[in-house]
Amino acid sequence: MMSEVMDLATHPILLRTELPGPLAKAAIERDKQHMSPSLIHCYPLYVKKAAGCMVEDLDGNILLDCQAGVATASTGHCHPAVAAAVKEQVDTLIHICGTDFFYPGYGALCDRLDRLAPKVDNGWQVFLSNSGTESVEAAIKLTRYHTGRHHMIAFRGGFHGRSMGSLSLTASKTKYRKGFGPLIPGIHHVEYGDIEAIEKGLFRSTLPANEVAAIVVEPILGEGGYIVPDKSFLLELREMCDEHGILLVFDEVQAGMGRTGKMFACEHFAVTPDVILLAKGIASGFPLGAMMARKEFMTWPAGSHGSTCGGNPVCIAAAMATLDLLEGSLVKNAAEVGAFFKNALHDRLTSNPIVKDVRGLGLMLGVEFDTHEHSERVANRCYERGLLVLECGASTIRISPPLVITRGQAQVAADLFAQVCQEVAA
Ligand code: PLP
Question: Strands, E, within 233-333: which ranges?
């Protein structure tokens, strides 16, 4: 079994059929009859198994994964160390409910996150959830509770989840909100990167600054287009929050856990928020999220928040194994291979007339196109050629492979991506 995993992990792209193949087509037709039509399914990929950066579909085609289950399979698919930790935990304790009881792992993971995060005077305390959305919900509740205020500022282009609270903060595409109103009151959106829009547009005219509980921001915009802001933007948000007693919340659900070449994305900007939200890569694909707050703000009392399965022992085992791997070599690999990948894309794409920008940090890379039609065609054609990437923003493709990707795989991906861009531009 182990050698099968290794064989797939080191396998080159192999296309046995046109994509999607006949087995995938039939299975998709059958499955769609029973599944919620709200699911997106950006292209007809039907995965049978996966290892490292390689994914095998139902027809035996092997594809190179540069999206990692939407930036989540951080240690690569089915990393043997993660799988072993989970198997051992499943034989020991699957569930007892961390809201009501203690068990080994919960406190240890919270302690580990506290030690990994940027240093703050009193340290961090952590609430464990099942997802990014739930981490955002926890932050909405904690910041409201602690400040006694309910207004919040968020940014156009931001994505924070799809439950009613997190959806109220999400402003990346109207389709996520359409038909679901009214959402929670008191959320004010401004342009990402625009401090004046808060100072002049809100504080001077409609929103008293001392009635704002939190500013919620992605330190690098994910779903909204893989945009790295100026350092000054996050720094000025920090100063604004300090001046008005507002809590600064960084949603690092997509950008955190080593993806950008540092464990926490905020480390690139030398700005430390009051609350950090994590999920996705934290447990290599097991459902786990975290809402970390500076200890002095964790003032909510027993019973005010909880979760039946949040921080369950199996997900924690996966997270501990994931953190071992991230700390061991993968954050470094994300920085090194990420820089190589970005340069490779840059070299191959600069003269392409449909490409507007190549950007990003570590293995959170974005390629912006002139039109949405072009980014869509590139993403679909990459899939047909055996390379998995995803769209984001208005006309950007995000490249967010597992952090185990090698230089060789990055080179293959950059070559194939550039070829596809050339075909689409022709
Ligand atoms: N926050 C950010 C920045 C995200 O990118 C996402 C998901 O893409 C979420 C929150 C929601 O996370 P989840 O889908 O795990 O609920």
Answer: 247-251, 275-278, 289-294
Mean pLDDT (the chain, rounded): 97
Count the helices and strands in the chain (H runs, E runs): 13, 15
Distance separating alpha carbons of residues 125 and 106, to the nearest angstrom: 12
Overall domain count for the chain: 2
- Asked if 248 and 128 sit in the same domain, the reply is yes
Task: Indicate if 72 and 134 belong to the same structural domain.
Answer: no
pLDDT at residue 6, rounded to an integer:
64
387 to each of 199, 218, 365, 373, 401, how far by Cα in Å?
44, 27, 15, 19, 11
pLDDT of 5 strictly over 80: no
The residues lining ligand 1, judged by C-beta closer than 6 Å to any ligand atom, are 70, 131-133, 136, 159-161, 218, 222-223, 251, 253-254, 279
Residues 131 and 254 in one domain: yes
| Residue 70, SS3 per DSSP | helix
Q: Domain check: are 190 and 282 in the same one?
A: yes
Q: Which of 160, 226, 278 to probe ligand 1 with, by most ligand atoms within 8 A of CB?
A: 160
pLDDT tens for 353-398 read 999 999 999 999 999 999 999 999 999 999 999 999 999 999 999 9
Q: Verify that 396 and 275 share a domain, yes or no.
A: no
For 201, other C-beta atoms within 10 Å of its C-beta total 15
Q: Could you report the per-residue pLDDT of 89-101, keeping only the tens digit for each?
A: 999 999 999 999 9
Among 251, 253, 315, which is best to mutate for testing ligand 1, by the most ligand atoms less than 8 A from CB? 253
- Residue 239, SS3? helix
In this structure, the answer to whether residues 203 and 341 fall within a common structural domain is: no
- CATH code of the domain containing 182: 3.40.640.10
Which domain range does residue 73 map to? 2-79+329-425
Q: What is the pLDDT of residue 374?
A: 98
Q: What is the chain's length?
A: 426
pTM, two decimals, is: 0.97
Domain membership of residue 322 (yes or no) is no
**pLDDT tens readout for residues 210-236:** 999 999 999 999 999 999 999 999 999
Whole-Å CA distances, 146 to 212, 305, 393: 12, 13, 33
Name the domain boundary from 311, 338, 373. Answer: 311
CATH code of residue 7: 3.90.1150.10
Residues 377 and 304 grouped into a single domain: no
Q: Tens digits of per-residue pLDDT, 322-334?
A: 999 999 999 999 9
